[in-house]
Design a protein that fits this description.
single chain, about 325 residues, alpha+beta, D-amino Acid Aminotransferase, Chain A, domain 1, Dna Ligase, domain 1, 2 domains, 11 helices, about 30% helix, about 25% strand
């Protein structure tokens, strides 16, 4: 499969393969489908959570928000009723600035990877979030404190320490392409492909693995757990697709990436949305995105609700 992608050294062959490039995504898709005035619906995680809760999209519960530097010292008060929690920037991207605390005592915090941090180090991390270190454009930010997601046993052998997530590309309300991102030791337990996580392309009708890559190179087994990646199948697949489809009504964005996790108790939950989703999902699937978008434009029915759009996609014969 990788040999197929290596021929894309010429722009003409790149286009013939149906690969959606960065320029085409920005100028032909995003600029046409996503009004900039709507970007705060996904760039601001506080706003996103409010919108999601308003239409019953399942999300991790919000524990608290730290908005100002003088509030950083009150972190322990905010989390006093919780044994574990996640700290993240409201305007962050690509998982930057996310800190998962699994337990803490009077002196130290322990992260999901087992690393020990002092109170001073965690307080400094929150302070860095507020100063905009991890935010889009370096703007001043706020720190969200959320509940920890406990990933399903269905993925126990497919991810190293971190929580795997499903990335859905949704176009005009229809799920168009999907992959699962699996954390590795190299990615430090984060489901970030640029840091070495594994990307697994998923069949849009079944949620079953069809291809897998790490650093854009095909793999068949997880590098740390040795799990057969082609045996991966996402349970509650319709519910995953429905979250992505509902994101269309929720944000009014015609082209959006939805990141979804499967909690062992609460089921599929929307982690965040992205108005400028990356294009590595094409490599993970071993095919370009252009054709899928063209088919949605040309053949898919209009004026369907989210349930009907998901059912239409699930019933497609491919």
């Amino acid at each position: 499969m990788w040999e197929y992608f290596k021929i894309f050294s010429l722009p003409q062959k790149f286009r013939q393969a149906g690969i959606l490039g960065m320029n085409a995504r920005n100028y032909k898709i995003i600029s046409r489908c996503n009004k900039r005035s709507l970007f705060p619906n996904v760039d601001d995680k506080v706003q996103t959570k409010k919108l999601a809760n308003g239409i019953d999209i399942n999300t991790p519960h919000l524990i608290g928000v730290i908005e100002y530097q003088h509030q950083v010292k009150d972190l322990l008060k905010v989390v006093s009723a919780h044994d574990e929690f996640v700290i993240k920037p409201a305007h962050g991207s690509q998982g930057k600035g996310v800190l998962v605390i699994k337990n803490y005592n009077s002196e130290y915090f322990t992260t999901s990877s087992g690393k020990t941090l002092t109170f001073k180090e965690v307080y400094q991390h929150v302070s860095n979030i507020l100063s905009g270190l991890y935010s889009l454009g370096g703007q001043y930010d706020v720190a969200l404190i959320e509940e920890v997601v406990h990933f399903s046993n269905a993925f126990q052998n497919f991810s190293y320490q971190g929580i795997p997530d499903v990335r859905l590309i949704v176009y005009k309300g229809f799920p168009a392409m999907a992959m699962m991102r699996l954390a590795t030791k190299e990615s430090d337990g984060r489901a970030n492909l640029h840091q070495g996580a594994v990307g697994v392309g998923l069949n849009l009708q079944t949620g079953k693995a069809i291809n897998a890559v790490q650093h854009n190179i095909p793999v068949t087994r997880h590098p740390d757990t040795d799990a057969d990646l082609m045996e991966l199948q996402v349970p509650f697949w319709r519910e995953h697709l429905l979250i992505g489809a509902k994101a269309y009504e929720m944000t009014s964005l015609g082209y959006v990436g939805a990141d979804i996790v499967l909690d062992s108790e609460r089921g599929p939950m929307m982690l965040e949305l992205n108005a400028r989703p990356g294009l590595a999902i094409q490599i993970a699937n071993g095919k370009g995105l252009k054709q899928a978008l063209k088919e949605i434009d040309k053949y898919y029915p209009q004026n369907l609700n989210s349930e009907q759009r998901v059912d239409y996609v699930l019933n497609l014969q491919k």
